[in-house]
Amino acid sequence: MAKDDRILAIDIGATSIKLCEFDYTGGGIALSRFAHREYEEELSDATRMGVVSGLLRQMMSEGNFEARKALICMSGQASLMRFNRLPTVNCTAAKIRQLAEFEATQNIPFDLNDVLWDYQLISNSSSDSVDIMSVVIKNDVVEQYTSAIMQVGCQPLLIDVASAACFNTAKACGIDEEGGCSIVLNIGGRVSNLVFVEGERFYARSIPIAGYTITQQIAKDFNIGFPEAEELKRRHGFVSLGGAYAEPESETAANVSKIIRNVMSRLANEVSRTISIYCAQQGGTKPTKLFITGGSSILTYCDTFFNEKLKIPVEYFNPFKCVTLLPDIDREKLGEVGHMFSESIGLGLRYASQCPVELSLIPINIRRQQEFNKKKPFFLMSILAIMMVVLVLWFGILSRTDKCEIQNKRIESKVKKVKEYIVPIEDSLSKANASKSQVDTIGELLLQQAKWPAILNEIYRIKPNNLWITSIKPIIGEVKPFEIQSTADAAGGNNGGEEGGMGGGMDMFGGMGGDGGMGGEGGMGGEGGEGASGQVVTIGGIEISGTSIMPDSKKVSFELGPVFEFPFSVGAASSEATAESETETSSDSEESTEGEESAPKETAKVDPNEAMAKAMKSAGATPEQAFEAACRNSRIFSSDSTLTTITFIKLSDTIKNYVNFRMQLAFEMPVEFFQVNMNKGNGAGGPGMMGGGPGGF
What distance in Å separates the CA atoms of residue 48 and residue 41, rounded to the nearest whole number? Predict the structure, then answer.
């Protein structure tokens, strides 16, 4: 699509700069201005930016160039072009592009952060493959050229390479309209670009043999400097025809022409080799015509030489067939340098229409700036819209300010009235919180008090029939694991003898009515004095002393009471018997369903009493062993065999099957009590549960 604008096409070659200004006002592409200038010094990394910017500024000033939107073409020497083939069997378009990007990056011999690269898919005659052309160029080289162009006030829009621009020009000029394959040989200053044009197929190669090679060889053979050799080439240079053709009278001219012929022969050999590669690897056909262009192509007899070497017709390429020349163009001057503008015309075509090969090597910072410039109108419209919305809101706020002030005054008067009730409400809330704290404290104390009846009920619920409990004593602090250290420990107790035990002789209930018991002298209702102090003490477990008689039947008799819910949190019953019960239930179920189709089953809940009864039966043949197993299966006591265990056992010498035993039981839940220390009137009763004498608990 044509553009109603003017652009500046800048072809930065290895030895010169070419400028073309194109006008798209009339709907087509028209050349309005052109310029050509060679560098006055050789380009290097240190001088490239300064030389290019200075020469551009001079050319634009002398030629009165008006356009500031710039399209840039880089020489074949600065870029690297590769061609590969990808299989397309069973590949979607997205997959092909993914493979193409991967293949393009694999062909880059530099760090990806140091280069700019692009690729394009090219069709070929095969239906199961596609050609990919990738181009890479050093990032610092592009940035130097773009910075030089921006210094003269131009805005870079895109960056192309010489071979692609020349191909687009050749396609626009229709050099392949007659069918077959045609090639364009652009003999430049440092490299010669060979471009194949055959239908939609594109192939190109940069050959490092060009005008600079000729000058270098002349300087070497004549043993002179490079400027003098360049002068000899320009003054006496032509391609020697050789053979029967007569040599010139000037010996210098004859020697220079022979040097040029030798260099051109090398170039012709590379062209022939490239044609063979194109036919063999790319599946192309042999070219039927050669078009030559470029600064070094105007050497006399150059067309005749290539016609003789390649055996195909040779013509000079006219790139201006696809553009219009405005009346102000100096046609005579253009005819002298027109052979060097094939790439510049290709840049103009890129701006005007869609071309067969479209590459973009613009740096990322310039690309972001271009995208931002495209969005600028939308930003401006958004800012204007926001300003209008703000103005409307501002006028609306002003119109409602008076109403809001009146309403605020009304609200302030109501707030003052409400604040008068805040202080009493806060006082009442503080008192309520204090009362709640007291209630919670009392509740915790009552809960601790409820633990002891639950513990006693659990003990007597699981006690075998032929076992009698003679004393229950608290174990203050953490219950230590019981380990038998000697025979004396096993026979005579581990913590203070048969009478003292772990509690040091302190009976928890005093025989349920004796001195210091819950109802005896010095118990909860015993004598007491004035002035009491105390502390919270943790009970880790209890020590039970008792006797048992084993019936002659050698079978333990027990009747487990019903399981009841505790008013406090306790651990779940866990024992080996429970696991064994579940295993046996599962095994029975599997045996009963053997040979039948499997179906989902719900896991049966195990009765705690059933699991405890199995544990008691398998524990041993004595009541105290059954009682030990039952305690380990209780939710109140620990299932650890070193914490809940028999610590003392002694058979009677006089009574058959009569046993005295002592056990320690570790609690699964914390049990605390407030131990009262009476300052006066403690009495002299027996040891009680919570005080140690009359007036205890």
Answer: 10
The reported pLDDT for the residue numbered 246 is 65
Question: Among 565, 552, 568, 511, which Cα is nearest to 657's?
Answer: 552
CA distance 636 to 459: 10
Residue 497 has pLDDT above 60, yes or no: no
Residue 6 DSSP code: E
Write the DSSP assignment of 14-49 as a string of letters: SSEEEEEEEE-TTSS-EEEEEEEEE-SS---TTTHH
For residue 603, give the nearest of 586, 580, 579, 584 by alpha carbon.
586
Position 442 pLDDT exceeds 60: yes
Secondary structure (3-state) at 537: strand
Token pair in block for residue 631: 């305690």
- Please tell me the pTM assigned to this model: 0.55
Residues ≥6 apart with Cβ < 8 Å to 147 = 49, 53
- Determine the average pLDDT of the residues in 35-43: 88
DSSP class per residue in 52-102: HHHHHHHHHHHHT----EEEEEE-TTTEEEEEEEEE-TT--HHHHHHHHHH
314-316 vs 287-293, strand pairing mode: parallel
- 3-state SS, residue 254: helix
Residue type (1 letter), 219: A
Answer yes or no: are the C-beta atoms of 518 and 482 closer than 8 Å.
no
Evaluate if residue 149 carries a pLDDT over 70. Answer: yes
Rounded Cα–Cα distance for residues 65 and 32 (Å): 9
Side chain identity at residue 223, one-letter code = N
Contact 352, 6 (CB under 8 A): no
Nearest-angstrom CA–CA distance, 501 and 663: 10
Of 135, 99, 106, residue with least CA distance to 120: 135
b/e code 503-534 from CB counts within 10 Å (16+ = b): beebbbbbeeebbbbbebbbbbebebeeeeee
* Strand order through the sheet with 201-207: 201-207, 192-198, 181-187, 287-293, 314-316
User: What 8-state DSSP symbol labels residue 640?
Assistant: -
φ and ψ at residue 65, rounded to 5 degrees:
-75, 135
| CA 103 to chain CA mean position, Å | 25
Other CB atoms within 10 Å distance of the CB of residue 79: 25
Q: CA-CA distance, 266 to 616, in Å (whole number)? A: 108
pLDDT digits (tens, 9 = 90+) for 238-269: 888 876 566 777 888 889 999 999 999 999 99
What is the C-alpha radius of gyration for the chain, rounded to an integer number of angstroms? Answer: 54
Residue 382, both tokens: 């958004």
Q: What are the distances in angstroms from CA 173 to CA 232, 242, 342, 349, 427? A: 35, 34, 10, 11, 98
Give residue-wise pLDDT tens across range 283-323.
889 999 999 999 889 898 999 999 999 999 999 999 999 99
Contact at 8 Å (CB) between 166 and 186?
yes
**Among 332-341, 602-611, 673-682, the least confident range:** 673-682
Q: Which of 103, 99, 254, 269 is nearest to 194 (CA)?
A: 269
- What tens digit of pLDDT does each residue of 396-439 get? 888 788 788 888 888 988 888 888 888 888 889 999 999 998 88
Q: Please write the tens of the pLDDT for every residue from 584-593.
A: 444 444 444 4
* pLDDT at residue 579 is higher than 60: no
